[in-house]
Amino acid sequence: MSSAFRFQCHFFLIFLATLKGETRYLEVRDAGEDDPFLLLSADLKRELSEGQIYRRSLRCIDMLSIEGQFTFTAEQPQLHCATFFIGDPEELITIDYDFVNIDCQGGDFLKVFDGWILKGEKFPSSLDHPLPTSQRYIDFCESNNFQRSIRSSQNVAMIFFRIHEPGNGFTFTIKKNTNLFPCNVISQTPTGRFTMLIPHQHRNCSFSIIYPVVIKISDLILGHLNGLYLKKPSASCTGVGDFVELLGGTGLDPSKMFPLADLCHSFHGPAQMKIGCDNTVLRMVSSGKHINRVTFEYYQLDQNELENRKENSIEEFCFPGI
Known about the structure:
The protein is mainly β. The protein is 6% helix and 45% strand. One of its GO terms (molecular function) is corticotropin-releasing hormone binding.
């Protein structure tokens, strides 16, 4: 990943590049404040006996992918803080407030966002999320909008907070719930396999992989015929109510990414594409008239593949330095 994209993501996306497919448990390394990266803990699952609640404190910028109870206590004024939550593709995230002690009248705030937002870019995008952007924020300090328990619409969510007074803070509990029909997903890993299923629903779903990858589509059912079309000014799926598109870019928001290929018709058998972008998205648009399904697998491009452009490789559409 480019240094610019890591900076935009407040360093935490470096952690995503270290995750392994066999586990999603993590903890913060015992290190100085100048080394706040999150690392994988392979022993954490074994250490937690059944029914035991995992507890730890939060940093100002943090990331969680495990259930448990988490506490933030300000040691000094903390004005620009965020915690990012991520689960497996088939999981939703529930945030339960256990204790909150902040000064709303003094300028403190504590907000949940349904999804992720970085440098003004949102996932899911406004085109793909069922709620308008204003309704995706849940502000603790708005008494008429207070919810003690908040559930995400996809496998990612986040909180923003600002606390001026040392000693103030909050505690919340994170739980995971099963999502029978995962729609918008950010992958925790650079390698995986996924089936996206939209059963007679008028909605758009995006699967985001924050790595340069090879993506192989093995099965696509849209109720049409065969076809894979590279994106050209004169060739697209315009006018087709059900289709899949491949997108690439350096940011988080699919609606701001480069359209690279349209898949307008059903097919069986592999269709492979190399996408040398910091972020790759497979997005399905569904009219609600059909049961649409796409099965694909992906793996991260190695450095040699990134440096040597080959046939059917479209990394030239991406500009990692931006």
